[in-house]
Design goal:
Helices cover about 50% and strands about 20% of the residues. The protein has 14 helices and 19 strands. It is rod-shaped, with a radius of gyration of 62 Å. The relative contact order is 0.06.
Length: about 575
């Protein structure tokens, strides 16, 4: 079978070697995967600790801002009337104090009715604070109050209001209040926690708002469970937890800013995004790439150093198989040493086979020549016997003796013709039956013609051949059948026809039929010597013979042979 690149041998060897290497390197890949997993877990732990620290720093920063604001308000509340009579006006004094602290957005004084009578922001003087919870707390007798997170009506930013009571316990004269910018107070947290994918949320027991990188509040983009909002009332220190975003749990930290009122929720980005693609590549993708490169290298190396040369040697072997043993695998001189050694062995084998082939051809030619010589000598010897029989028959008067010699001559002639056909043929193992039967019929007609009768002997034969051991009995069978026809079928006739036909009805079934258009066989002739000989010849070829009348009134001698023909 010719070599086909990429065929079964190529694919199987490549696959097996690649599989062996893959199995050998797989533990290293597992180690890389385990290392990647461990580093990812460690990164999650580091990220969680960082978020806890950020939460604590944010709470500390906001509490410091509240303490500073409380100190400012205490000072203002004790000298409230002094501020109102200050040179340049109360508003100017409040503005100067507010400008000294970037966390404070406004400082204001109210009257007992909640109206702002002095404010660092001019736009805030028309506001009424009487409905605010922190004002009502002071109005009922508390000395200090801190509001929840609210949206400043002037600044439009989330603020905390720190307020102190003006007047004594029995007389309420108003309030001194300072507004703290919650986002500005938590700037350390916001600036350090807004990595890609992270979220910063201000959470109260009622709602949650998200802080973007511009320190602007916006509606939160994730759904928070009500239980998480209520935990603002309980949390007193940064607390790690898990929140669900888009159906996936994500690490988070809840850090208190104002006890029981305000907390910061820090949502971590996904571990891979926080960790970075470089770390992933260093711990897993690089070993995976090396794993793939190793497999590809083996695949290409096997193809270049093994399969290419095996395919070449296979083509050389196919050339040797076709009989061209003189081809030398020259290209294999550039192959690896092992392949080169195999090619040299194949070349030596081809040279040895060519030498043996030459010797066998010479022996066959000698054997053929000897066989032809033997067949030629046998044929010549038989012709000598025929000549002797002719001489002997010529000296005898007509009668049974002369007839017996003539019958013997016919039989010997048939044997001689077989040997002549063999030594004249190219193949000494078979007799080509069409030519052989035609010549045998002509010979029988010449030998049997006595000049007084005109009887033709014709042959019809399919393209079949027989081995010599089968051709001799068949030739003798035809000789006896034609002889019987001359002796008995045309005894009282001067003309007639004998047809010898050999037909192959199948690969193993051949029928020899000798037909005449004479007067038919007599009872005595059907049990004579010729009939006995024909039965004997049929037995030699494992065939069956019988005689039957034909449509022309003559007789058919039939021989059916069950023997594989040689085409």
């Amino acid at each position: 079978m010719p070599f086909r690149p990429g065929g079964e041998m190529t694919g199987r060897l490549r696959f097996v070697l690649a599989l062996v290497l893959a199995v050998a390197l797989f533990p290293l890949l597992l180690v890389a995967m385990a290392q990647t997993w461990g580093e990812a877990r460690e990164e999650q732990r580091v990220q969680r600790d960082r978020m806890v620290i950020l939460g604590a720093l944010a709470a500390s920063e906001l509490n410091k801002s509240i303490s500073r604001a409380q100190g400012v308000i205490d000072a203002v509340s004790t000298r409230g009337f002094a501020f109102m009579s200050a040179p340049g006006g109360c508003a100017n004094a409040m503005a100067q104090i507010s400008e000294g602290d970037d966390v404070l957005t406004n400082i204001a004084l109210t009257n007992p009715s909640g109206e702002i009578i002095c404010s660092a922001l001019d736009d805030a003087r028309s506001l009424d604070m009487s409905t605010e919870g922190w004002f009502q707390t002071l109005e009922t007798g508390s000395q200090r109050s801190v509001s929840g997170v609210m949206l400043g009506q002037v600044s439009r930013r989330p603020i905390l209001v720190v307020a102190s009571r003006l007047g004594n316990q029995d007389e309420f004269r108003g309030a001194a209040a300072a507004a703290i910018d919650v986002l500005q107070a938590s700037r350390i947290l916001i600036d350090n926690a807004t990595a890609e994918g992270s979220k910063v949320l201000l959470v109260t027991p009622d709602q949650a708002r998200e802080v973007d990188t511009a320190r602007i509040l916006k509606p939160v983009a994730i759904d928070l469970e009500q239980e998480l909002l209520l935990r603002v009332l309980e949390v007193d220190r940064p607390e790690p937890m898990q929140v669900t975003i888009d159906g996936r749990e994500t690490p988070a930290v809840l850090a208190p800013l104002v006890d029981h009122e305000l907390a910061l929720l820090l949502v971590s980005p996904s571990p891979t995004a926080q960790w970075g693609l470089i770390s992933v590549a260093a711990t897993f993708l690089v070993p995976l790439l090396m794993y793939a490169l190793a497999l590809a290298s083996v695949w290409l190396a096997v193809d270049h150093y093994v399969l290419r040369w095996l395919g070449y040697l296979r083509r050389i072997a196919a050339v040797y198989g076709s009989g061209r043993l003189d081809v030398v695998p020259v290209r294999a001189r550039n192959a690896p040493r092992e392949i080169r050694g195999l090619a040299e062995t194949m070349g030596e084998m081809a040279a040895s086979l060519e030498e043996q082939h030459s010797e066998l051809e010479s022996s066959l030619e000698q054997r053929g020549a000897l066989l032809r010589e033997i067949h030629h000598r046998v044929k010549n010897n038989l012709q000598i016997i025929v000549s002797l029989l002719n001489l002997q028959a010529g000296r005898m008067a007509d009668g049974e003796g002369r007839m017996a010699l003539m019958e013997a001559r016919r039989r010997i002639n048939a044997l001689s013709l077989v040997h002549r056909s063999l030594y004249e043929a190219d193949d000494l193992r078979a007799v080509h039956m069409p030519g052989f039967l035609t010549e045998l019929c002509m010979n029988l007609q010449q030998v049997s013609d006595d000049g007084a009768r005109s009887i033709s002997v014709q042959a019809e034969c399919d393209e079949v051949s027989f081995e010599p051991d089968a051709a001799v009995p068949i030739a003798l069978f035809v000789t006896e059948a034609v002889t019987n026809a001359y002796k008995h079928a045309f005894k009282d006739q001067t003309s007639g026809r004998v047809l010898v036909s050999l037909k192959a009805s199948s690969a193993e079934d051949l029928t020899l039929r000798v037909s005449d258009n004479g007067s038919g066989m007599t009872e005595t002739a059907s049990h004579g010597t010729g009939s006995s000989l024909m039965e004997a010849f049929a037995m030699q070829v494992d065939g069956e013979t019988w005689s039957e009348s034909n449509a022309e009134g003559g007789t058919d001698f039939v021989l059916q042979v069950r023997q594989e023909k040689t085409d």
